[in-house]
């Protein structure tokens, strides 16, 4: 697969979306940006600005132009009746799952159009149906994207319907996973350009879960306002340069499910989620030259160290004046080059977390600029939790596994990062008007 994407004007794309608001799946994979023209949809004959289409062959929040904020929440279906404590049968769990999908579909369809989420499943006298925290705000390009974890299918009696490539991710050699941030039977990805709108959406989703499912973990992230430019991660480097362009054959080949998947999964994809903690104090005291060698790209403009501009195809055979490869073989770019996926990641910065552990030194390789191991204990750095919520949408998760094994074995970046969370989900196809999420899972054989 070519590593160099075709660039195009984000502004012209948004204008196009505004003119064809009923179509889903249009978009660009690079980061959120300031917009002079927002998407518009019709709600009861009235135009609603900042609304992304909910219905379509694919779920929104994948090919959608990336929003500024992202929220991720994993749930597990209840195994027992919350009142009696009696274990639920497979049929009862499946019924609960279908009920939850119906409620989440209705909530998502309404919220993305700028409407209230609708009545609570079990209304209480005098209790408002909605939090009200987003009253007066437009939808801010809100999208809700739903995923199904590997354990779900057996739990609801549909093991034979599980997508072919959906399996738990292995634990890689450099992983330091915390169970609190791993796994999940259900995922809700909520993205938008206003964190208050996102907060309201999560409260509406969570409010439909009691008795049916319980929250397992949640994470939230952000992006800068980079306009048409590729967004930067907290290392200061551009993240997502090689993303495929939505609507092209390359994008379809890399992202959407193949023809050998179950019929109900046509139009779906897979999401690999990884919480990656960055040792920013160590990175910030490393020379700029070493940072660039670690990435294989220049920080200022994103160009590969072999020369050119950000979207120039890297030349891994090029040798510099010192007789060494311009792009080190153990640089991040060299190891992930050609992996077919769409990166749709978000930065996170939770500041000081008492439970966080320091990132162990993964080998000097010149990263310790003073020749000594960095000990940040006692200064607050050891418990500083910040990094990236890595999100990769792809047709075949085995491609990610292949890449991550290479990274775990040799990536220079291992000296600066720790993988603390890990999960994988099958993302069902989009919802047709009048349909519900994952309804096709229960149709046919």
UniProtKB/TrEMBL annotation:
Residues 1-23 form the signal peptide. Coiled coil: none annotated. Keywords: Heme, Iron, Metal-binding, Oxidoreductase, Peroxidase, Signal. It comes from the Bacteria. Residues 295-314 are annotated as: Disordered. Transmembrane segments: none annotated. InterPro entries: Dimeric_a/b-barrel (IPR011008), Dyp_perox_C (IPR048328), Dyp_perox_N (IPR048327), Dyp_peroxidase (IPR006314), TAT_signal (IPR006311). Pfam families: Dyp_perox_C (PF20628), Dyp_perox_N (PF04261). Its cofactor is heme b. One of its GO terms (molecular function) is peroxidase activity. Residues 59-222 form the Dyp-type peroxidase N-terminal domain. The keyword Metal-binding applies. Residues 230-431 form the Dyp-type peroxidase C-terminal domain. PANTHER family: DEFERROCHELATASE, DEFERROCHELATASE/PEROXIDASE. Belongs to the DyP-type peroxidase family. This is Dyp-type peroxidase. It comes from Nonomuraea indica.
């Amino acid at each position: 697969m070519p590593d160099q994407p075709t660039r195009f004007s984000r502004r012209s794309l948004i204008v196009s979306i505004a003119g064809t608001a009923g179509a889903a799946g249009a978009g660009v994979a690079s980061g959120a940006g300031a917009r002079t023209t927002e998407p518009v949809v019709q709600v009861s004959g009235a135009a609603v600005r900042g609304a992304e289409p909910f219905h379509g062959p694919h779920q929104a929040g994948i090919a959608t132009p990336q929003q500024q904020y992202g929220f991720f929440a994993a749930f597990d279906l209840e195994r027992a009746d919350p009142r009696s404590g009696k274990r639920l049968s497979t049929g009862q769990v499946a019924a609960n799952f279908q009920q939850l999908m119906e409620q989440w579909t209705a909530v998502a369809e309404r919220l993305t159009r700028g409407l209230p989420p609708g009545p609570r499943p079990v209304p209480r006298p005098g209790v408002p149906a909605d939090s009200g925290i987003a009253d007066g705000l437009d939808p801010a390009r809100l999208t809700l994207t739903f995923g199904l974890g590997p354990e779900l299918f057996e739990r609801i009696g549909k093991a034979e319907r599980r997508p072919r490539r959906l399996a738990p991710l292995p634990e890689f050699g450099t992983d330091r996973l915390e169970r609190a941030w791993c796994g999940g039977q259900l995922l809700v990805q909520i993205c938008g350009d206003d964190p208050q709108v996102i907060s309201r959406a999560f409260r509406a989703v969570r409010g439909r879960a009691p008795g049916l499912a319980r929250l397992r973990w949640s994470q939230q992230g952000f992006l800068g306002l980079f306009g048409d430019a590729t967004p930067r991660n907290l290392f200061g480097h551009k993240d997502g340069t090689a993303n495929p362009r939505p609507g092209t054959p390359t994008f379809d080949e890399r992202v959407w499910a193949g023809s050998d998947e179950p019929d109900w999964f046509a139009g779906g994809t897979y999401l690999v989620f990884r919480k990656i903690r960055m040792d920013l104090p160590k990175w910030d005291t490393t020379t700029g030259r070493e940072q660039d060698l670690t990435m294989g790209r220049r920080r200022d403009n994103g160009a590969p160290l072999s020369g050119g501009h950000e979207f120039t195809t890297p030349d891994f055979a090029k040798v510099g004046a010192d007789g060494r490869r311009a792009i080190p073989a153990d640089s991040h770019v060299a190891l992930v080059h050609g992996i077919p996926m769409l990166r749709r990641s978000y930065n996170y910065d939770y500041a000081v977390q008492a439970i966080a552990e320091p990132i162990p030194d993964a080998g000097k390789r010149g990263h310790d600029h003073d020749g000594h191991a960095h000990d940040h204990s006692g200064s607050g750095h050891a418990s500083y939790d910040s990094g990236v919520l890595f999100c990769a949408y792809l047709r075949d998760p085995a491609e990610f596994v292949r890449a991550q094994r290479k990274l775990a074995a040799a990536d220079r970046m291992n000296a600066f990062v720790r993988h603390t969370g890990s999960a994988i989900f099958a993302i069902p196809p989009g919802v047709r008007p009048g349909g519900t999420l994952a309804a096709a899972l229960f149709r046919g054989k």
